């Protein structure tokens, strides 16, 4: 099947690579915010109760997973763009939507993980029974990024 030039203009790959960049940059922003905000809380409690530092590292780990979601989608998008095959505007906008989906979802999840992680680890210092509640809230916050990844994968398979 041949693609006519009006459906595959020269600038179409730029739109696809913009989706690739959005996936990576926005998810890295969310991951960085979660790591920094949670790290502030861990550093705050580490001076008073150093034995809680390793137990409190969970928000940082969950924040780090968010950037992996963006990396997966970026690699999939970049791998499907080739100068040998025609790249249509439809594919470009589908890839842009996929990148924005995982990027913004991971950024929102990183914001939630950062705030819950900071307040949660400080709360654990005072009341250790809060750990289970903090873990549940962190899991629900992480799932926001996972939802964005699932939508991005569905959009990428349709392109």
From TrEMBL:
Residue ranges of every copy of the V-ATPase proteolipid subunit C-like domain listed in the record: 19-77, 96-155
Domain of life per record: Eukaryota
Xref: SUPFAM superfamilies: F1F0 ATP synthase subunit C (SSF81333)
InterPro entries: ATPase_proteolipid_c-like_dom, ATPase_proteolipid_csu, ATPase_proteolipid_su_C_euk, F/V-ATP_Csub_sf
TM helices/strands, residue ranges: 12-36, 57-81, 93-118, 130-155
Subcellular location: Vacuole membrane
Keywords: Hydrogen ion transport, Ion transport, Membrane, Transmembrane, Transmembrane helix, Transport, Vacuole
Lipid bilayer topology: Multi-pass membrane protein
Gene Ontology CC annotations of this record: proton-transporting V-type ATPase, V0 domain; vacuolar membrane
GO molecular function: proton-transporting ATPase activity, rotational mechanism
Subunit structure: V-ATPase is a heteromultimeric enzyme composed of a peripheral catalytic V1 complex (components A to H) attached to an integral membrane V0 proton pore complex (components: a, c, c', c'', d, e, f and VOA1). The decameric c-ring forms the proton-conducting pore, and is composed of eight proteolipid subunits c, one subunit c' and one subunit c''.
Similarity annotation: Belongs to the V-ATPase proteolipid subunit family.
PANTHER family assigned: V-TYPE PROTON ATPASE PROTEOLIPID SUBUNIT
Role according to the record: Proton-conducting pore forming subunit of the V0 complex of vacuolar(H+)-ATPase (V-ATPase), a multisubunit enzyme composed of a peripheral complex (V1) that hydrolyzes ATP and a membrane integral complex (V0) that translocates protons. V-ATPase is responsible for acidifying and maintaining the pH of intracellular compartments. Proton-conducting pore forming of the V0 complex of vacuolar(H+)-ATPase (V-ATPase), a multisubunit enzyme composed of a peripheral complex (V1) that hydrolyzes ATP and a membrane integral complex (V0) that translocates protons. V-ATPase is responsible for acidifying and maintaining the pH of intracellular compartments.
Name this polypeptide is given: V-type proton ATPase proteolipid subunit
Organism: Starmerella bacillaris
Lineage of producing organism: Eukaryota, Fungi, Dikarya, Ascomycota, Saccharomycotina
């Amino acid at each position: 099947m041949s693609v006519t030039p009006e459906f595959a203009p020269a600038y179409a790959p730029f739109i696809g690579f913009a989706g690739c960049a959005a996936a990576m940059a926005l998810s890295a922003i969310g991951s960085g915010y979660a790591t920094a905000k949670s790290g502030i809380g861990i550093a705050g409690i580490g001076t008073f109760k150093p034995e809680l530092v390793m137990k409190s590292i969970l928000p940082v780990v969950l924040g780090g997973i968010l950037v992996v979601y963006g990396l997966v989608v970026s690699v999939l998008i970049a791998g499907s763009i080739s100068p040998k095959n025609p790249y249509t505007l439809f594919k470009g906008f589908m890839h842009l939507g996929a990148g924005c989906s995982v990027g913004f979802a991971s950024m929102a999840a990183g914001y939630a993980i950062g705030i819950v992680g900071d307040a949660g680890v400080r709360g654990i210092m005072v009341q250790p029974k809060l750990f289970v509640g903090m873990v549940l809230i962190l899991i629900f916050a992480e799932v926001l990024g996972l939802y964005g990844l699932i939508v991005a994968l569905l959009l990428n398979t349709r392109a």
